[in-house]
Amino acid sequence: MKKWLSEGMGDGFRVLKVLVVVAIPVCILLFHVWNQFRITELGYEVAQQTRDHRELIEERRKLSIEATFQGRSERVLTVAKERFGLEPLEPEQVIQIDETAFGGASEEQASLDLRTRE
């Protein structure tokens, strides 16, 4: 029985040695594959972020151009006509006020005088 146990332990020890010799390289290989997978995955993420960044820069450029265009006086006139139905003033629509009618009063006093007359 002793002989059988000592022989059995020898076989078990050999099996354990083989498992260790095989398991260590397999673990290293699996770690390497996982590491390469993560590197590739992060590379795709960086590429996506770069695309998003370029798209945002392009959108900012377009918005800047549009803001410049929207601020032009011709554009303001067009929007005033289309959206609000406003038309340019005709000369007969302009009412001129004579300053002397208010006794040489300042603009602030003149506006107050107009309110009191109504």
TrEMBL record:
Keyword NADP among UniProt keywords: no
One term under GO cellular component: plasma membrane
Keyword NADP applies: no
Transmembrane segments: 12-34
Protein name, per record: Cell division protein FtsL
Location within or outside the cell: Cell membrane
Primary residence: membrane
InterPro entries: Cell_div_FtsL (IPR011922)
GO process annotations (BP): cell division
